[in-house]
């Protein structure tokens, strides 16, 4: 059993805390907005009054927050975790914040060890222990915590610090760009009068097969659950643009996808699952 602090109890952080508790770990939970995580406390988690309070006796600190400013506030703001983290603890940063933020955090927290470990998947993936977890940092630190991460899913060591943060942005940009492309193409086949089921069947034989299989129930209106809001997906695109600028890259396809996401958000879809971009484009 490990003593784990979970900072950030949004949908994903809450699910992570619950999964770790089910596995027998001692969890201290903190969230910026009061009232979240009461069920975790009722199940035995310690309610922390601040990030600093949450981490004082932690062996592992997991952060799952919205963006780099939120991570900055949680770690280095008033009552932030950074000064209180035990020197022999490890921070596992599971948010989508990008490599620049990870580099800054790792530098300022040394000698505390930091792994960037953003995830591929959503709340059901956490609860079922099947997240994809990209992990960057020192290999020996990864090896030390691989069993813990395996409670949540399948950890994949991808390289030095910041590598996982890069790959999470690349994965998200690819997903959003592909969804926009698919939405535009389905709009075209709708206008041509083709049977939507036949269209989706044909696409399962092509390069978008995995996406069609994963999203088909949403495309057909049979499922409308929201696991990743469109406005958060757009936030991730801004991060990848910032990182691309830093290395002299130019993402023309992703920029087009971002513009279509902006249109959907302006129409009021920001709080819906990011898959809503497909139905928006088909309209």
User: What's the tally of helices?
Assistant: 13
Shape: globular
Helix content: 40-55%
CATH architecture of the largest domain: 3-Layer(aba) Sandwich
Major sheet size, sense and barrel closure: 6 strands, parallel
Examine the coordinates and then state which fold CATH places here, giving the name of the CATH topology of the largest domain: Rossmann fold
End-to-end Cα distance, whole Å, is 51 Å
Instruction: Tell me the name of the CATH homologous superfamily of the largest domain.
Output: NAD(P)-binding Rossmann-like Domain
CATH top-level class of the largest domain: Alpha Beta
Assign the structural class, choosing from mainly alpha, mainly beta, alpha/beta, alpha+beta, or little secondary structure: alpha/beta
Strand order of the largest sheet: 3-2-1-4-5-6
Number of domains: 2
Uncertain residue ranges: none
Give the tally of β-strands: 9
Write up this protein.
With 283 residues, this protein is of the alpha/beta class. The chain folds into two domains: 158 residues, 3-Layer(aba) Sandwich (Rossmann fold), CATH 3.40.50.720; 117 residues, N-(1-d-carboxylethyl)-l-norvaline Dehydrogenase, domain 2, CATH 1.10.1040.10. Helix content is 53%, strand content 14%. It is built from 13 helices and nine strands. The strands form two sheets. It has a six-stranded parallel β-sheet with strand order 3-2-1-4-5-6, sandwiched between helices. Helix 8 crosses helix 11, helix 8 packs across helix 12 and helix 11 packs antiparallel against helix 12. It is globular and about 60 Å long. The protein starts with a strand and ends with a helix.
